[in-house]
Amino acid sequence: MSSGSHGERKPEAELGLLDATMIGMGAMIGAGIFVLTGLAAEIAGPAAIAVFALNGVVTAFTGLSYAELASAIPKSGGGYAFVREVFDDLSSFLMGWMLWFAYMIAGALYALGFAPNFLELLHVYGFAPAPDQVGAVALPLLDAAVPVSVGLAFTAVLLLVALNAASTAASGSVETIFTLVKVGILVVFVAFGALSPMFSTAEFQPLFPADGGAFAILPAMGLTFIAFEGYDLITTVTEEVENPRENIPKAIFLSLAVTVVVYLAVVTVAVGTLGAQGLAEAGEAGIAQAATEFMPTGLPVIQNGGAIIVFGAVFSTLTALNAVVIASSRVAFSMGREGQLLPSIGQLHHRFGTPFVAILASAVVMLGSVALPTKSAGNMSSLFFLLSFIVVNGAVIRLRRERPDMKRPYEMPYYPVPPILGIVLNLVLTGVLVWYLVRTDPLALALSVGWILLGGLAYLGLNRWRSRGETSDSGPPETTADAVPQEDD
Amino acid sequence: MTQDLNVIIVGGGRVGFQTTDILADRGHDITVVERDPEVCDAIADEYVATIIQGDATDPAILEQADVERADVIAGLTASTGVNLAVCLEAKEMNGDDLRTIARVERLGGEEYTRFVDGVVFPERAGARMAANEIIGGDVVSISDVTETLDIMQVRVAEGAPAANKRLSNVNFPTGAIVISDDDGERIAGPETTLDPGKRYVVAVEPDVAEEVMNLLRG
After folding, report:
1. What pTM did the predictor assign?
2. Where are the transmembrane segments (chain A) (predicted)?
3. Which residues of chain B does CATH 3.40.50.720 include?
């Protein structure tokens, strides 16, 4: 087969295994670990370490499914594109609808994580009082005055939406640098933390909280599940990766493995230094606060060593927010292209060349969700990622049964064990999370159910609208715009 | 049409693969059905299409290409018989919504249009490109949108009979029309001058092509 004969292929940039791995790691590492470690410690105590390890294991099964689907279905749309290929109209619509929501709520989560860390950064340099003194985030739905951090989160979303609406996204090589910065900062955190005197007297007992025992880690797993969301972004750039059928599965597993290692080191150090109790009190800024405790002070230029970590948290949450603004609009865009949302959502803006309407539509939900408490946002996005991962695992099984002769450049080992385990484990976490929401966060649950119901209505409405459009006019015929052979003269 | 088409290409050889490549570049969703495992591997490496490995004349194989959801099927193997068979087979599975295209082995496969919506004879298009290259850049066939009518870009030669003449003063044979003004900036009119060295798009019927070439190229 001729290899260099397609001069018109658009994304010609060739990403290697390293770049692809970095995209996955870049999407996973960062916001989740910075924002949610404190909240996980609040639920599970020192067992937060086990929470992250077990989530890595659960996600690995779905990772196998993603790898197989990505190798067999050459589409850059990620999870929605695969499911669209395999399932009928309604199922694939719901999958896209859920995944879209998951990314949008994740956007709100990262924005909410950005705000306190940004305030902490200002605080380190004395520009602002400590975060907990800057208008506590108490019942924002009832509070007339907008708390400062919510305002900050809102502004962050607004800025990144504007950026992505007006220009096309940064390329993979920039992503690699971003990821290296993030991982580098976490390595600094782990190194200084492990050497600090606080860590030598680390207290990991009792491992599990008194109320609930070992099962207490389950809701914490549900909450932090989103920290492992992101490797699926590798499959959204498959076309640009060289030798994709080998490198995509490798990149998925490599990024998952390295991420688990990094998380374990970070959480161990955080629990070891600040203690589970202290972490829980620091909440979204847990890692940053732990760092300010043990990092050396009096350094040139940056003064306080902890500022590096706080900067890492600010940087990570912003880049993660940027990634999900892109990811959410891509899901909406593909749904528009497939005729599963309004066609205008599936169109590029004539001037900016961006999926403008898709970005705006996503922005509306993101901006609205910034008013949610951070924990609710974490729970909701985790819930919807869990649901969509169940569908992805189901897609593998269905595709194997219905299209046995489909070419699968990567076939997962021990089929059908991994997708079945993936479905069962994700279902368990979904169940635990829903049960947890019923007891502690009915608002998040109501909003989740509401979104699915809204999806059902949108689906019915769109079908009615489409069938009316089809009877009145059959659409203009496709115009074939063949380029006239150009000759230099 | 703003939405992408779901296309099934039967036969992933040279014609099938190039077609897949072009359509994938334009954003359509392609499924290739191909018998040869090695060819399947090669297409998989290019990452442009979903691939079903097997003999498309076997309904159990063709079904896996998701015929129900397809908009178009194109039989592009080297065998006219196989191409017609898969088109008819797919039509039977899908119903009237499916467009069918069959590659034929010789010129003038019009009799097949009773069974399929379109026929292609890719060797002819290839031959046209080869002819373009052989002649050089002075006469370029542009496309094949019409049955036999040829639309081409011709550079007026120095010293050709029509060179430096106004269009109203040149008597082109019936069955030929000059479409564009010099270098394709506007539509030609009676006052258009045929400057040597410049290019004009002309449409010609095959029987007068030679005369037109004579006038423009000398």
Report:
1. 0.78
2. 20-41, 47-69, 90-112, 144-165, 177-200, 212-231, 251-271, 308-333, 354-374, 380-399, 420-438, 444-462
3. 6-120
